[in-house]
Amino acid sequence: MRQSVVLNLGRGDLNNGFPLIIAQLQSEGNPQSRQFTARLPPAPELIDCYRRWQLLYDLVYQARSLNIRRHKTTPTDEDICIDEADVTHVSDADFAQISQELQNRIDTWLDSGEFSPIYRQLQRLLDPNQEIRFIIQTEDNQLRKLPWYIWRFFRDYRFAEVSLSPLNFEPTTTTKNSAEQVRILAILGDSTGIDIEADRRLLVDLPDAETVFLVEPQRREVSEQLWDKLGWELLFFAGHSSTQASGETGHIYINPTDSLTISQLRNALSEAIERGLRLAIFNSCDGLGLARQLADLHIPQVIVMREPVPDQVAQQFLKYFLREFASNRSFDLAVRKARERLQGIEGEFP
Fold first, then answer.
1. How far is CA 72 from the centre of its chain?
2. pTM
3. Cα–Cα distance between 149 and 16 in angstroms, integer?
4. Cα 236 off chain centre by
5. How is domain 182-308 classified at the CATH fold level?
């Protein structure tokens, strides 16, 4: 029996705390839900820790000279400055240490007594042997950047997976796609400095799927395909993307000279969603802005990368996710299993 948790963090932030947090618990097949309230204290040190983690993450990959799915215009935190000399001094041990510190700080924050009225109920009412969909609702950009999946709760509940949504998200009603096969619209955008051919091969090899590829298309081509009367079930993008510093707007670079925001495709995407589009995968870097805009259109499921990622990591995640999803795992568990399998390449890609 699948269970779900919606954790509404309200209008608080890490600098000032969260005066009212509402958790709703519901079980599949039961229309009634249980509701609990709590608070969370300020945690400005978590912001600082995340920024230091982000700095070392960048340094580790600069030292390895790996191809990263990061567009050259991707904004960086103005408080983070990288000294070229530091690139050769950072070690995997340094990065492992800051990663552990970030996990410990997230655990400590969510273990606070002010949050215990909710945490105790989660532990009492949730079954660790059942699938749990855990949705965190927030409008705060710093909270969306945190790796929530490293929280102790998700280590204890092996069938739980976290996703993010705006505060007032409600799924829209979609019609069933009229095609017999799963229809996939795959946009292969600007590939400057990266290799997206592996992404194409993975989609070509999918069974029972009809995939239409748009290679470095123009805006009009993308729009026309989204309006296709047969509809699409999956929208896929590989290439470069970026999120503005505010976290509200994302760009996909559809070819070497042109980029698009979700708002520039709003009408076409809304039509595609009404015709059955239920999943969008952006196998590109820095995609939180894209997810934020797509949530406003009420697309059921979106996968984006929070940080710039190496080619091989993006490709391995896609391979594992498609394999798990095709084996009839739920969307949430397929995401979790795919992410966990990436541990096998952490020696090459920390």
1. 21
2. 0.89
3. 23
4. 14
5. Rossmann fold (3.40.50)
